[in-house]
Design brief:
- The complex is a heterodimer of chains A (about 110) and B (about 160).
- Chain A is mainly alpha-helical and about 110 residues long.
- Chain A has one domain (about 10-105).
- Chain A contains four helices and no strands.
- Chain A has helices spanning about 10-35, 40, 45-70, 75-105.
- In chain A, helix 1 runs antiparallel to helix 3 (about 45-70) and helix 3 (about 45-70) runs antiparallel to helix 4 (about 75-105).
- Chain A starts with 8 loop residues before the first helix and ends in a 9-residue tail after the last helix.
- With about 160 residues, chain B is mainly α.
- Chain B has five helices and three strands, in the order H-H-H-E-H-E-E-H.
- Chain B has a three-stranded antiparallel sheet.
- The longest helix of chain B is centred in the middle third of the chain and has 28 residues, at about 55-85.
- Classes of the chains: A mainly alpha (about 110), B mainly alpha (about 160).
């Protein structure tokens, strides 16, 4: 289906910019995950990859396959929607678990009144 | 009308998802999509669920634009913090935010917005005291975050859900 056709230069440049941009932002998020010291700080870092990182890669994918197949290929939008809805659920669960543990161990976190 | 299509918005969303999944708008895809968007909401209707009243579309689009803008801006803010490393003094911490909104759908959307935005994190919500606990990566002024959450998001969500 996508065998012999090549991307025209303008699309190739646009797609690579999106891909590299998305990958770079995801990498920065991963570096943050390593660099931050407290658990609650660390949870903030991966959201870079989950938002703009994923977004740019999906836009690149949409442009690439829409140009190659000369019709709009937009099912990446669904990946974006479902990532946005599900990632916060995981993060909130992790933070609640950490908070519960910190309260049991009487660490420096706001108490449950 | 109400009996054949109890949730028109949900039917529309299902049809859109179906068309996107198939990546085409051929008659066969449309026909199966329409069938699906009629049947699935009927099954949903058999469940016990909170009634969702969604306000006007204009405020939904406006909120969406604001959230997209804020997420982009926060990506750069948090990216800068990560790359600056220890060269930059930074204090992170928790902030208590009193909420007026009680609608569970609105609160769920608020939790998703806050957590998706890099730099802010929804930690927990106390429905009895109507207070939300927020974690902020770069906490300068707690008051700033209270006004931000309340004026920028909560007020607009209440327009949509109440």
């Amino acid at each position: 289906m996508i065998a012999e056709t090549d991307l025209p230069p303008w699309a190739a440049i646009l797609v690579s910019l999106c891909m590299l941009g998305g990958a770079a932002i995801t990498l920065i998020g991963a570096i943050g995950l390593m660099r931050f010291k407290r658990f609650y700080d660390r949870v903030h870092a991966p959201t870079l990859g989950a938002t703009i990182g994923t977004g740019l890669i999906l836009i690149g994918s949409m442009i690439c396959f829409s140009v190659l197949e000369t019709r709009p290929i937009l099912h990446e939008i669904l990946i974006g929607v479902f990532t946005t809805i599900t990632t916060p659920v995981t993060l909130i669960l992790l933070v609640r678990a950490a908070l519960y543990r910190d309260r049991v161990e009487k660490n420096d976190v706001p108490i449950d009144e | 009308m109400k009996r054949i299509m109890p949730y028109p918005l949900m039917s529309l969303a299902l049809l859109a998802i179906w068309v996107l999944l198939n990546n085409s708008v051929t008659p066969a895809v449309l026909a199966s999509g329409v069938l699906l968007s009629f049947l699935a909401p009927l099954a949903y209707g058999a469940l016990e669920r909170p009634r969702v009243i969604v306000g006007n579309v204009v405020s939904i689009v406006r909120l969406l634009a604001i959230v997209l803008f804020d997420i982009t801006r926060s990506n750069f803010a948090v990216g800068t913090i990560i790359l600056a490393g220890r060269r930059r003094e930074r204090v992170s911490g928790f902030v208590q935010i009193p909420l007026t909104m009680t609608d569970p759908n609105g609160l769920a959307i608020l939790a998703v917005i806050i957590t998706s935005t890099p730099g802010t994190l929804w930690v927990q919500y106390d429905s009895r005291r109507q207070k939300m606990l927020l974690h902020v990566l770069d906490l300068v002024e707690p008051e700033y975050w209270v006004t931000l959450i309340k004026d920028r998001y909560e007020r607009r969500l209440m327009e949509i859900f109440e």
